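Hi there,

I know you've been waiting on this one. I reran it after we fixed the sequence typo, so this is the corrected version. Both the input and the resulting structure follow.
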Amino acid sequence: MIREVDSFKRYRDIMSAFDELNRLIEEEISRVIEDGAQRYRSEAFYEAVDASRNVESLRGIQKRLNGLRQEWEDTEEDGTEEDGTEEGGTEEDGAEEDGTEEPGPPRKRLPRGMRTPKSVFFRPILKTLVELGGAGQVHQILRGVHRRMAGVLREVDNEHLASTKRPRWETTARFARLMLVDSGMLKKRSPRGIWEITEQGRARVQ
């Protein structure tokens, strides 16, 4: 659980940093566009052309930044195997109560793009919770998510992880749940073993 939460916090913090940089670049682009328009109205045509070139340069930087953001996100998606337990897990849901696990083969890093991204799980989780009346036990939700994603999940998603004895897609879904909680779409303090949707989450799937 601790490693999973720490991994998610790192993911969130770095993604937030990318988003903040993107916002600042967008603000600068707007400023340069306005400056160029003013110079054009003042018939300072050379300066207006320079402003236009600066906008093109900033757009190029923004595009490269977004490429780096996607590259890092892909690395996080495909280069980590999260531990499957989470706050609110129960023995019924597959958690190991004694904290032990049988030794297994060393984990192998998945090639980039093989696993279904966490973000793809957001809507199925929210839709399943709405279908269940707003809340449900983890095993109910995972069953509904699996049904909704039957045509989406890849072969690698159905492989069982030695560390959790669960299929990979379940671990990804649990990690996606943490992201939905952090974004305000699922409740933070639900009863143990229960996931609950918020009004914001309902609005997302309406």
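Quick highlight: The chain has six helices and two strands.

Best,
R. S.
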